[in-house]
Amino acid sequence: MKVGFLGPEASFTHNAAKTAFPDEELIPYHSIPACIKGVEFGEVDLGVVPIENTIEGSVNTTVDYLFHQTTIPVGAEIVLPIYQQLMVAKENKESWQETTKILSHPQALAQSQEFIRTYFPMAELEATPSTAYAANFVALHPDQKIAAIAPRLSAEKYDLEIVGKDIQDVAINQTRFWVIGSEKVELPINATDKKLTIALTMPDNMPGALHKALSTFSWREIDLSKIESRPLKTTLGEYFFLIDINVQKPQQLLDNALEEIRLMGGTVKIFGNYAIHPINGV
């Protein structure tokens, strides 16, 4: 089986993918849309893409593409603790505090702001397609006073020196990844809970539309763990609502709640009804 992931190798997504699929062929993609298209067009059987981070919130590229562009189902969720490391070329390990530029994925830079402000307030920050890309770039340019923020796996792969350990702003920093391409995906990682994720839209100009929709869950005592609005990309001021539901009630009760929303004129798109698999980070 072929499994696509947001590459390149040694990124956090790669770590999640190889832990979840240790015996499968892993195919890196340069972007989230490219990975989703790889699943859509049959280049790979499944895909692993980030969906949310503790600090930075939802990965809007994933949410919007799955809502607007495709009907690919979500079959499982992987939760990976995120530990950011500052790394330099081994030639620069003694002079790492002279770093003038720090490279990383935008989310990794945002997750490490306090460390950067404290130790490198004047350093230039450069966004890269992935954390692994940043690490590889630093390895290829040892003559420059640059550093990368990336996972420990990147330092090992590109032979870099870690000079700042666990520099993320929040100690408990996690990223959720969705496994897409099948309604149910079995993983060699223990599952802790189940979740149903839907996208909800309500009729225009309906007074109290969102309140009415949420009441269908409230009176049934269905627990919602997340609700977030995203633009419909039609007219300014029109949104869809991304809702995560903790699956603790009988399926029939959940189905009845969704049917009640449809009877009110709302539309419901189900992303997936899937198990949550926490794994150890690096």
Automatic annotation (TrEMBL):
<feature type="domain" description="Prephenate dehydratase">
    <location>
        <begin position="2"/>
        <end position="182"/>
    </location>
</feature>
<dbReference type="Pfam" id="PF00800">
    <property type="entry name" value="PDT"/>
</dbReference>
<dbReference type="InterPro" id="IPR002912">
    <property type="entry name" value="ACT_dom"/>
</dbReference>
<dbReference type="GO" id="GO:0005737">
    <property type="term" value="C:cytoplasm"/>
</dbReference>
<keyword id="KW-0057">Aromatic amino acid biosynthesis</keyword>
<dbReference type="GO" id="GO:0004664">
    <property type="term" value="F:prephenate dehydratase activity"/>
</dbReference>
<dbReference type="InterPro" id="IPR018528">
    <property type="entry name" value="Preph_deHydtase_CS"/>
</dbReference>
<feature type="site" description="Essential for prephenate dehydratase activity">
    <location>
        <position position="175"/>
    </location>
</feature>
<comment type="pathway">
    <text>Amino-acid biosynthesis; L-phenylalanine biosynthesis; phenylpyruvate from prephenate: step 1/1.</text>
</comment>
<dbReference type="GO" id="GO:0009094">
    <property type="term" value="P:L-phenylalanine biosynthetic process"/>
</dbReference>
<dbReference type="InterPro" id="IPR001086">
    <property type="entry name" value="Preph_deHydtase"/>
</dbReference>
<dbReference type="InterPro" id="IPR045865">
    <property type="entry name" value="ACT-like_dom_sf"/>
</dbReference>
<keyword id="KW-0028">Amino-acid biosynthesis</keyword>
<protein>
    <recommendedName>
        <fullName>Prephenate dehydratase</fullName>
        <ecNumber>4.2.1.51</ecNumber>
    </recommendedName>
</protein>
<keyword id="KW-0456">Lyase</keyword>
<dbReference type="InterPro" id="IPR008242">
    <property type="entry name" value="Chor_mutase/pphenate_deHydtase"/>
</dbReference>
<keyword id="KW-0584">Phenylalanine biosynthesis</keyword>
<feature type="domain" description="ACT">
    <location>
        <begin position="198"/>
        <end position="275"/>
    </location>
</feature>
